[in-house]
Design a protein that fits this description.
The chain is an alpha+beta fold. The chain has helices at residues 78-90, 113-129, 135-145, 149-154, 189-194, 213-222, 228-234, 237-247, 269-282; strands at 12-29, 35-54, 59-63, 97-102, 158-162, 166-169, 177-182, 252-255, 262-266, 287-292. It folds into two domains: 7-169, Ribosomal Protein S5, domain 2 (2-Layer Sandwich), CATH 3.30.230.10; 177-292, GHMP kinase, C-terminal domain (Alpha-Beta Plaits, 2-Layer Sandwich), CATH 3.30.70. The radius of gyration is 19 Å and the shape is globular. Its EC number is 2.7.1.148.
């Protein structure tokens, strides 16, 4: 929640859930330089939180572990960009607002923190302002903010293709107990893509009839993240943190997005919480968090 004394003043609250790339296949590159991707994406119960209230003037405040890594510059802050674009799109109802961001996710870490924040800002402001946009208009506005924002608007299991704008929901994907792990070292996404040896890799292919967690784990294990090998070259800690997750009992480990966050899927939330606590004790300077993903049938 926002800092003490402010929480009761906020009439609208939106969760900005961490976005996890269970699989990420780079399948080509457009003439304009954008890479074509096939991604199996899910979202966690853990994330940032945005709160909204009417105000005399526009106000933006921050709290949370990673608040110090952000600024209130409307030229770079995706929450403020989302506010301004939505206000321009809807016009008169868009009175001044106080937006508070509780920043719990590390930035530039491959789990869509900024994109999830922008999507939550769009959802929350539409609720506060009592308005909506047609689905196509909202999708186009979200895409202006970033390729990950349209899927973060959904915040539920999906397959995204193209540059991320072609979305297909995956209602059969189950929830997973998960530990998120990050060595708190930034990874440059452009540098990762530049180091890709091959940019026309096989597309994501999921067998029909996946029934339960075991089937899905097998299918996810057969997929890949094509960005992981070049990211490991740039940040060797990714290799170390993945090995730590495996040694802690993870059934499957992989890097999310362009890194450096890795995830481990565990059999139960109890084992995930125990692993996160042990890993934090081993490396208190790194980021470890146990959470559960959202099921497709939420």
């Amino acid at each position: 929640m926002p800092e003490e004394g402010l929480a009761g003043a906020f009439s609208v609250i939106e969760e900005a859930r961490a976005k996890i790339n269970l699989a990420l296949h780079v399948t080509g590159q457009r003439p304009d330089g954008y890479h074509l991707l096939d991604m199996l994406v899910t979202f966690t119960g853990h994330g940032d939180r945005l709160s909204f209230a009417p105000s005399q003037t526009d106000v933006f405040t921050l709290s949370g572990r990673f608040a110090g890594t952000l600024t209130g510059d409307s030229g770079t802050n995706l929450v403020l960009k989302a506010r301004d674009l939505l206000r321009e799109a809807i016009g008169a109802p868009a009175f001044p607002v106080h937006i508070h961001l509780e920043k719990n996710l590390p930035i530039a870490s491959g789990i869509g923190g900024g994109s999830a924040d922008a999507a939550a800002a769009l959802r929350g402001l539409m609720r506060l302002w009592g308005t909506t946009l047609p689905e196509e208009a909202l999708a186009a506005l979200a895409l202006k903010l970033g390729a990950d924002v349209p899927m973060c608007i959904e915040s539920r299991p999906l397959i995204a293709r193209g540059i991320g704008e072609k979305i297909e929901l995956v209602p059969d994907l189950p929830a997973f107990a998960m530990v998120l792990a990050n060595p708190l070292k930034g990874v440059s996404t452009p540098d990762v893509f530049r180091r890709l040896a091959t940019k026309d890799n096989p597309a994501l292919s999921l067998a029909p009839g996946l029934l339960g967690a075991a089937d899905w784990l097998t299918a996810i294990g057969a997929a890949r993240n094509d960005l992981e090998p070049p990211a490991r070259e740039l940040v060797p800690e990714i290799t170390a943190i993945s090995a730590m997750l495996q040694a802690s009992g993870a059934l499957l480990t992989r890097m999310s997005g362009s890194g450096a966050t890795c995830f481990g899927i565990f059999a139960t939330m109890t084992t995930a919480k125990d692993a996160a606590a042990a890993l934090h004790g081993e490396r208190p300077d790194w980021y470890f968090h146990a959470t559960e993903t959202i099921s497709g049938g939420m």
